[in-house]
Design the sequence.
């Protein structure tokens, strides 16, 4: 039977539990358990093992909620879509719950209540998991019109710029698309359409999304949801006036804004609209549309500042672009050249191997259906359908002894011309005539900010646009709004951490924060057996997590121990 034993060490008493038994007729200590000082013994008696432990995600949810509070998200939404009746959550509260879910752990609306119960949001927001059912979400989403979404976003964007002091000197515009699970035979929605899926899901209907983001923190300030089969240039044309209006609303120095867009948005109408807008611009041109510019060799160019651009050469000219005289920059980039060369060499090898396989197969006599000239030509066309391959390979299918034969050869001269004239080159144009070549190139390279935003929205863990389990245009628009709002919140969070000296990707930041858990230890009270006491603590955190909590101001959301 265990006994309590005291030992005096350096004049202080310490206590042990131990058990003795007789072994071979002699007393022997079987085991010893160190308790410590008398105070430790008292603590163990007064605070026994917990009856249960409740763990909830704290870091990422609270950080996202805090940014949303700074933006007044709920108040702004409820001002445009007032609550009906006095019972239940408002539209703003429902949309905020959906937005925070997109930030931290994207799920379907049917699973949102289960996720909510596992976070500390249950004590920060006046919602219950019973209210977070898909039917309630659909009812509230139905109340928000397309016009109201635009007004809400404009007001939140204005609050975002003023509250976080965002720089608007460069704004980036681009488009992408996301696949959906809308049934092919559901003719009611017009947004999901068959088109070129940028995620390679040609078997599914897609929805297009246009974004305008800042170069300062990759923060989205405008979005537009459009039909998946619509070309980028048409989308740009349809929103250009809204972009101009948004910029005027956001900045008093709107004439200092430079809008950056890529060649997919070019057209006569679009460039005319850009010209009438309040901003300056930098864009790019399709190189093959300007063969005269491609003939400019690298040796005719000057090397740009190596401290700003390590391996870029350029030449500057004035040229009419879409009937307007513009500053045009033809650039050659060594890393881009190397990457394009490597990619093309790989594709050339693949095409050559496949063509040789067809040659060998045609020479063999086999049973079954005989190959035809038309069928063989179709195979060859498919193999050479990749860009540049039809120019580099000369292939011919002809009938020999009543059987098709393939002959082909690689055109070395055209390969040399391609390497000399096209690879590594980018053609930029702008109305920023006063800018240096370096400034123009760096401005266009800022396009990576909007491209990064799209990549974040396609990450399966955080911020993802999917799953998109909505079947009407109206709900798809509201879903897109919550996704873009989530991107805004996380981008601001990341920007805040970066300015404090902790540069991290959104995924790294959310990963680190998500590991901070709030733990409730539930005990039976020693005074009254039926009464429970709760001790609330945080899970163990590392130095970076503690620093992030301080930088993001999360400590004020901690709760005191409840007794």
Sequence:
């Amino acid at each position: 039977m265990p006994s309590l034993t005291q030992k005096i060490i350096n004049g202080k008493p310490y206590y042990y539990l131990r058990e003795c038994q007789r072994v071979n007729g002699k007393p022997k200590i079987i085991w010893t358990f160190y308790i410590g000082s008398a105070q430790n013994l008292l603590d163990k008696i007064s605070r026994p093992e917990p009856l249960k432990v409740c763990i909830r995600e704290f870091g990422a949810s609270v950080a996202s909620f805090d940014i949303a509070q700074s933006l007044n998200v709920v108040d702004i939404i409820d001002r445009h879509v007032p609550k009906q009746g006095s019972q239940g959550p408002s539209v703003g509260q429902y949309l905020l719950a959906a937005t925070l879910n997109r930030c931290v752990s994207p799920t379907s609306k049917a699973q949102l209540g289960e996720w909510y119960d596992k976070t500390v949001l249950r004590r920060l927001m006046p919602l219950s998991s019973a209210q977070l059912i898909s039917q309630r979400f659909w009812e509230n989403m139905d109340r928000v019109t397309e016009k109201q979404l635009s007004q809400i976003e404009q007001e939140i964007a204005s609050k975002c710029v003023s509250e976080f002091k965002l720089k608007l000197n460069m704004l980036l515009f681009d488009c992408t698309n996301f696949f959906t699970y809308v049934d092919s035979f559901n003719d009611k929605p017009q947004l999901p359409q068959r088109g070129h899926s940028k995620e390679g899901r040609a078997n599914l209907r897609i929805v297009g999304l246009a974004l305008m983001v800042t170069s300062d923190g990759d923060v989205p300030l405008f979005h537009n949801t459009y039909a998946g089969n619509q070309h980028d240039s048409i989308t740009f044309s349809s929103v250009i006036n809204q972009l101009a209006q948004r910029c005027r609303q956001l900045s008093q120095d709107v004439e200092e804004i430079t809008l950056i867009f890529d060649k997919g948005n070019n057209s006569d109408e679009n460039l005319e609209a850009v010209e009438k807008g309040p901003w300056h611009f930098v864009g790019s041109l399709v190189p093959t549309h300007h063969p005269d510019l491609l003939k400019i060799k690298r040796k005719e160019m000057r090397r740009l500042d190596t401290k700003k651009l390590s391996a870029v050469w350029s030449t500057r000219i004035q040229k009419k672009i879409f009937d307007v005289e513009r500053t045009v920059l033809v650039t050659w980039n060594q890393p881009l050249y190397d990457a394009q060369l490597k990619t093309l060499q790989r594709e050339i090898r693949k095409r050559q191997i496949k063509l040789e396989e067809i040659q060998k197969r045609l020479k063999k006599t086999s049973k079954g259906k005989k190959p035809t000239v038309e069928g063989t030509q179709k195979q060859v066309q498919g193999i050479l359908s990749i860009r540049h391959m039809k120019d580099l390979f000369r292939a011919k299918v002809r009938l020999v002894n009543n059987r098709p034969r393939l002959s082909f050869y690689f055109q070395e001269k055209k390969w040399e011309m391609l390497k000399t004239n096209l690879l590594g080159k980018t053609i930029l144009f702008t109305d920023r005539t006063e800018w240096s070549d370096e400034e123009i190139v760096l401005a266009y390279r800022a396009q990576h900010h909007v491209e990064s935003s799209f990549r974040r929205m396609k990450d399966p863990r955080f911020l993802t646009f999917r799953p998109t389990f909505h079947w009407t245009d109206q709900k798809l628009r509201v879903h897109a709004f919550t996704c873009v709002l989530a991107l805004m919140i996380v981008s601001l969070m990341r920007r805040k951490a970066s300015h404090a000296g902790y540069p991290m990707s959104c995924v790294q930041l959310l990963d680190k924060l998500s590991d901070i858990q709030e733990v409730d230890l539930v005990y039976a009270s020693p005074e009254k057996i039926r009464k429970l006491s709760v001790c609330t603590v945080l899970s163990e955190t590392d130095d970076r997590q503690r620093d992030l909590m301080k930088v993001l101001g999360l400590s004020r959301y901690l709760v005191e121990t409840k007794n």
